[in-house]
């Protein structure tokens, strides 16, 4: 999946992945995609909830070797 911006939030604890994702999303235009990489297991619930509450679309979530990857389209 092609992302406009990739955010490396690995090693950061809650709530930092969401805080960093919000800041990164502010730099994007509507329709562009943010790819977030994190090792925070809480992000499995936090990022989709934040995306929905903020009017963004969660396109995909994958996990590879303990790294969670999210693709979020800006609303």
UniProtKB/TrEMBL annotation:
InterPro entries: TusA-like, TusA-like_sf. This is Uncharacterized protein. Belongs to the sulfur carrier protein TusA family. Pfam families: TusA. Gene3D superfamilies: TusA-like domain. It comes from Geobacillus thermocatenulatus. It comes from the Bacteria.
């Amino acid at each position: 999946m092609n992302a406009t911006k990739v955010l490396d939030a690995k090693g950061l604890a809650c709530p930092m992945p969401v805080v960093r994702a919000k800041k990164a999303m502010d730099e994007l235009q509507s329709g562009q995609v943010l790819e977030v990489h994190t090792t925070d297991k809480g992000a499995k619930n936090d990022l989709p909830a934040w995306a929905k509450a903020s009017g963004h679309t969660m396109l995909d979530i994958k996990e590879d070797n303990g790294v969670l990857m999210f693709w979020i389209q800006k609303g």
